[in-house]
Description:
Blueprint (H helix, E strand, L loop, with lengths): L10 E12 L2 H7 L2 H21 L3 E5 L3 E7 L5 H16 L5 E15 L4 E5 L1 H16 L3 E4 H7 L5 E7 L8 E6 L1
Parallel strand pairs: 4-6
Antiparallel strand pairs: 1-3, 1-4, 2-3, 4-5, 6-8, 7-8
Helix pairs in contact: 2-3
Amino acid sequence: MVTQRTLHQIENVSCWLLVADIHNFTPLSSSLETESLEALLGSWISACKEIIENHHGLINKYLGDGFLAYWREEDTNAEEIASALSALREIQCRNAPEFRIVLHFGSVAIGGIAAMGEESLMGKEVNLVFRLENLARSLGEACGLSEPARLNLGDFVPVRFLSEHELKGFEKRRAFYAVS
């Protein structure tokens, strides 16, 4: 029997996008027993998920040693995003495990397959936040913001300008900021 899958209507929505990724996961995973690694990852993801959901966000995708989360602009405000970012930074200070956070703001296409109960985030802004996470990794920054995220957050989050960078697949250089 063939199951018919219906597509949710695709809509363009302004969203906050956050990527978190564990630093040096491969060496970490080879240095721990399976049960210890599972406990560490489970604890980390659970703590991050609780923060995101308590601030009206959703984790869209789990990426093994990281995740993609989002907040629809209509469901939140800059102060709440700043609060979520601050809470995630507190987890970073615990150093178990070390991880990076990158926050971006932009318009994404949201839709999905109803039978799978999942929404997909699509578009250049999703690609951009992952490119920015790679940039943060190469710069050794624990927490970074795109220019649109910095502008929308205003004075809620202290930042320092790093510089403008070329990113693979994007024509113009992008300003990038570290959270102080």
